[in-house]
Amino acid sequence: MAQPNLQFDDLQNLFDNQGGQPASQLDFGDCVNLLLQRRWFVIIPLFWALVAGIILSVVLPKKFQAETLILIEPQRVPDNYVQAIVSSDLASRIATLKEMILSRTNLLKIIEDFNIFSGPESSDMFLDDKIEVMRKYTTVDIVSDRRNRTANAFKISFEGKDPQKVMQVVNAMATLVIDQNLKVRESQAVATVDFLEQERVKMRRRLEEVEAALKDFRETHMGELPDQLPGNLMVLERLMQQLS
Questions:
Q1: CB contact at 8 A, 100 and 176
Q2: Position 210 pLDDT exceeds 50
Q3: Residue 89: pLDDT above 80?
Q4: Is residue 182 very low, low, confident or very high in pLDDT (cuts 50, 70, 90)?
Q5: Contact 160, 63 (CB under 8 A)
Q6: What is the 3-class SS of 41-66, one letter each residue?
Q7: Contact 170, 67 (CB under 8 A)
Q8: How many other C-beta atoms lie within 10 A of the C-beta of residue 193?
Q9: Which of 173, 184, 232, 244 is least surrounded, with the fewest CB atoms within 10 Å of its CB?
Q10: Which of helix, strand or coil describes residue 32?
C-alpha cells in the first residue's frame, strides 16, 4: 500500500494549525483521551487480578498470628544506694529466655495442653516434626529503643490456623517467661539476703572483738588516753593550787 507523501508546505501548515507547538507535547485532555481509548488495557488486568485474589483468598488456608510485647523495666532504685540483683547483660538474658521458649520441653507441653496437632491431617506426623513446626511458626524478637539503641522489650508471636489456639499459645509463652523471670529473681534475692545475713553476723562478731580489745586497752592504760588529757590537766592544776 502506497504511503501518501507530505510536502514541506503541508508540514508547515500542520505545524501552524497546532498553534506553533511541537507534536510531541500533549496536554491533560490528550492524556485523558488516550487513556480512555486504551482503557481495556488497564481494566482487563485489574479484573483478572481481582478474580485471582478472590480465588486465592478462598482456596488458600487461613493463617492467624497473635503476638505479645513484654516490656523490661530497669531497676528504679539508683545503683548508688542498692546494687541491682540481676547484673547480667540484658541481650544475653533475652537470648536465654528465647531458648527456653523454643525448648523441646516447653513446646511439647504446649502441644499437649492445647492439642495443637489434633486434626486428622497431623495424625501421621512424628513428635519431632511437630516440635519443628512449632519452632518454625514461633518468633521471639528483641525490640530496641530507637533513642539509645538498647534492648528494652521483646516480642513473642505465633502463627496458626485456629485463632483461639494461637492466642492461647502466645499467652502460655508469655506466662512462662514471666514466671521463669520471677523464679530467677526470687532465687537471686534469697541468695542475696542469705549473703547479707552472713556478712552481718561476721561484722557483728568483728565489732564485739574490737570493743573487747578497746575495753582492755582502756583498763590497761587508765589515765594515759588522749581523751583523758583535759581531765588530767585540771587535776594537775588543782594540785598546784593546793600546793601553793
A1: yes
A2: yes
A3: no
A4: confident
A5: yes
A6: HHHHHHHHHHHHHHHHHHHCCCCEEE
A7: yes
A8: 10
A9: 244
A10: helix
Task: Provide the grid cell at 241.
Answer: 593550787
207: three-class secondary structure by DSSP: helix
| Residue 35 predicted with pLDDT over 80 | no
Residue of 182, 181, 154, 186 lying closest to 170 (CA atoms): 154
The β-bridge relationship of strands 138-144 and 64-71 is: unpaired
pLDDT single digits (tens) 65-81:
888 888 776 555 455 54
Report yes or no: 155 and 143 within 8 Å, Cβ to Cβ.
yes
Question: Residue 71 has which C-alpha cell?
Answer: 516490656
The CA distance from 22 to 31, in Å, is 16
C-beta of residue 163 within 8 angstroms of C-beta of residue 61: no
Would you state the cell numbers that stand for residue 199, as one nine-digit string? Answer: 556478712
CA angle 4, 9, 11 (to 5 degrees): 65
In three-state secondary structure terms, 216 is helix
Distance CA 232, CA 237 (A): 9
Say what percent of the chain tops pLDDT 70. Answer: 73
